[in-house]
# Entry
Amino acid sequence: MIRDDFILDDLLHIENPRALGIGAYIMYIRKILVETGLRTITPLIATEPDTSWKKQRKEIAQNHGFRKFCHTTMANARINIEIREMLLGHSIGLSDAYYRPTPEQCLNEYLKVIGDLTINEENRLSGQVQELKEKNEDKDYVIKGKLQEKDEQIKGMQEQLHLIMNSLEQLKANQNNNITKNKLARDLIDSGYYVSK
# Structure
């Protein structure tokens, strides 16, 4: 039910809503279209005969324009023709009797076009935010992997440096002992830190 505006201080008015009539609904739609700039008011010229009783057609129909926009958007998105017509409340001819899509099929077709049908940017922006979050998480995962790889390389290099420093300390301590020098050289060659010629 679409109800009329209510006064927050008037509890009786809030508890007893009145449904909008078709005339009030049309008036509200017209008011919103003018306020948003989608429709302009064109005054009648005084020299024209009295045509106030005639409707002045606009490029886009006031209420039917929503349905046309929906139909065009769904057609551009190439959703299933029968489901599109069913979503718009149109008859699909003989297929009415034979084609019965499941609610899930109708929902899936509608979800394909919901971003294009949404006038408010909030839905599109929330989708973009979600997409950016996923990209950011992927980048964070890659960065963490690279950092871990670099940490392991640094740790391995520190171990190599520690081994070399220990070997040099032993060489300094045993400068005159050839057996120790040969053993240290053999250890360095075996561990891959030195290549013999």
Summary: Residues 121-173 form the longest helix (53 residues). The mean pLDDT is 79.
